[in-house]
Structure formats: structure tokens, C-alpha cells
Amino acid sequence: MPVAELNPHSQTGNHESAEIVVSVRGLTKVFKDFWNRPKARAVDNVDFEVRRGEVFGLLGPNGSGKSTTVKLLLGLLNPTRGHIEVFGHSPRHVQTKSRIGYLPEESYLYRYLNSRETLDFFGNLFQLSKGERENRAGQLLEMVGLSQVHTRAVGEFSKGMQRRIGLAQALINDPDLVILDEPTSGLDPIGCREMKDLILALSRRGKTVILSSHLLADVEDVCDRVVILYGGKVQAMGTLKELLSEPDTLRITTPVLPRETLTRVLELIRHDVAADTVRVDNPTQNLESYFLEVVQKARRAAAETSGAISGARVAAYLRAGAEERPPAEKILERLALPQTAQPATAPKPAPPAAAPAVDANKLEALTKAAAPAPAKPAAAPEPKPADLSKADEKLSSLLGKPE
């Protein structure tokens, strides 16, 4: 199935009337040297808006200002000039930060923690309860395909596996705005497809996604609108349909026609246009679709592999009907549900306390307090359970003596 059919942008909904999540006006960032002299103008008078439920792409070559723009949106840098609002507040607003999930270009993780410990750490930063952290961690690890290796330290992970756990930590707080910087970097084709399906699932749930990537095919599959930066300035912005359509060219796609019919059609067309402007060829699908199709055929033939198999879920929901939602979307919906209180269970009766061991040496010393202590008393043997009554009698007689 061609990927274009999986994401018809005209059917993702009209976002023009939706709530504005990110508003950027006249954004400028100038980096200065030690002597406060301007060194580089990374972002130059940039304007754009991102609305709720939209997948917005930040595109441009290296050094065009994409990463700087992302850091300004996160409040990690202060703008030189301009205005930024995220959910109607400054990016440095603490409550606003709790509604944002961020996957940086490089995954900065504590290498000696395993996957569950990593998610527990980040969940604790958002003050999630222990039960909620454990519940979300299990679901997210299943979603990103790491549930089988959750006890391995993340420092042992490959780059693709680190991207997966990085995505899980970006979603641990169920954010309303997700910012992804090169999310498919290091992922295999199946992982890339899973990532893109997850982005679409987030958008369907009303989440807003800002995506920065150099892989234009990935952007084309998932983004509603894009902005193209160069030299820190906006060079183009709009929906993919607006930017990519060629209004002066028409394409007609038909099943294979008999040669006589095709000849008649071409003769009619050549009455109005020059013969060298008409091209007849077979349509092609993109390489990703072909790759996934080959992998699915191999799986159906029960071919064995020692590689990743987490993408088995992806193929199933690539062909899912409208009534069946992708597993990624179902897991995200479960994450958003409030945690119900578990029924209280009757506490188990505590086991009877063991009788304290009696030190016969001390008892013997108490009963012989009036007698002179020997230079080196012999160690008394450990008391047996049968001797406890005798020890009690000696203690009672001692306490009952008049002073």
C-alpha cells in the first residue's frame, strides 16, 4: 500500500479554527562573542503559528536556524528580539513546560540506568505517582518495542534503540505539545514507519507535533504544514499541497489500456499540446512501501530472522480498517486516562513474633550479684527452649527480694 494513501493531508482535519498552541512573531536570535560583538544571526525575523492537532515541519539545511528555533521554543535560549508564546505563556513558564515533551537530536540518557529506571526517573520529574509511573513505563516500552530488553542498561543500546527510549521519555508526561528533533535518525525502516504512525496517532488525539528533520520523505508523510528556513529566514511556508502541487501539469492514471485505445488517446492529446510534452510511463511506489511489503511477505512465509521483530505490529495496523485503531493510538489513550484506585485488599495477619532469645549469662550474673565476680567467668552454653522457665524463675526471685 503506498504511503501516500496512509496520510491524505486533506483528510487530517481543518486546523485553521483550532487553538493556537505556538505563536512566533519577529523572532530573532543573534549570537555574540566574548566582547559582545555580533557573531552570527541564527534566526532572523521569523514568523509562524502552530495550531492544536497539527503536525508542523521545520525544514532547512544545516545551519539554517532549525535547532536554534527549537531551543527558543523550549526556553533554553532567550531571543534577541521578537515574541514567543507557548499555550499563551512564555516558554520559561514552569506549568507550560510540564505540557511539553521533547526528543533532542542526540539522546542524553544516564547510561547506567535501564529502560524502566530511565522512565521512572523522568516520570518522577513530572511528579507522577509511583503506580502511574510504572503503568506508563510498561505501556511505553511495549509501544517502542523495548519491553523485552527493559533490564539492559541504556548505555548498551544501539543508536536506534536509544531513539526509541528517548521517544518514550518524551511521552511519559502525556504532553500536549511534542517537539521531535530528527526522530527517525538511526532507526531501521520498520522503526521509521512506527515513528511516523505514532506521530499521526498523536495528531488524531489532538496533540500538537513540531518535527525537525532532514529526511524529507518522512516529513512529507506526516506533516500538515512546513516552514523552510535558510540563513535564519523563512523562505517558504504552507501546506504540502500548496507547496508541492504543479498547477500547470495534469496527471491521468488509468489501468493498462489496449494499444489501440492508448494510440487514440494520445492522438487526441497531441491535437492540443506538443508531442514532446506528453509522457507515458508506469506509476511507482516509494521504496519504503516496497520494503515493508517485502518484509511482510517474508513474515507470512515464516522466514526466520535474528534481527528486530518489533515492527510486526506496524504491518497489521497499516492495513487496519477505519473501525480498528492502531495499537499506538490505543496505548496513548490509555495513558491519558486517570488512574483508578485499586481495591483495598485485607492485610495479611502478621506472623506471631518470635520469642526473644534469653541471654543466660546476663541472668546468671543478675542472680549472683551479691557474690564476688570471678576473674574470668566461664561462658554459659546457649539456653535451650526447655530452660526458659528456669530462667524466668530466677529472674522472679531476684525481683522479689527486698532491698
Description of the structure:
The structure is a single chain. The protein has 403 residues and is an alpha/beta fold. It contains 15 helices and nine strands. The strands form two sheets. The chain has a six-stranded mixed β-sheet with strand order 5-6-7-3-8-9, with helices on both faces. A three-stranded antiparallel β-sheet has the order 2-1-4, covered by helices on one side. Helix 14 (360-367) packs parallel to helix 15. The N and C termini lie far apart (100 Å). The model is unreliable at 1-12 and 304-323 (pLDDT under 50).
Provide tags for this entry:
403 residues; alpha/beta; six-stranded mixed sheet; three-stranded antiparallel sheet; 15 helices; 9 strands; 36% helix; 16% strand; globular; disordered N terminus
Note the gap between the termini: 100 Å
Q: Give me the number of helical elements.
A: 15
Number of E-type strands: 9
From the helix content, strand content and strand pairing, which structural class follows?
Answer: alpha/beta
Q: For the residues shown, what is the average pLDDT?
A: 76
List unreliable stretches of 5+ residues: 1-12, 304-323
> Could you give the order of strands across the largest sheet?
5-6-7-3-8-9
Rg, please? 34 Å
Outline the biggest β-sheet. Answer: 6 strands, mixed
Query: Strand content of the residues, in percent?
Result: 15-25%
Note the run of SSEs as H and E: HEEEHEHEHHHEHEHEEHHHHHHH
Helix content: 25-40%
Q: Report the principal-axis shape.
A: globular
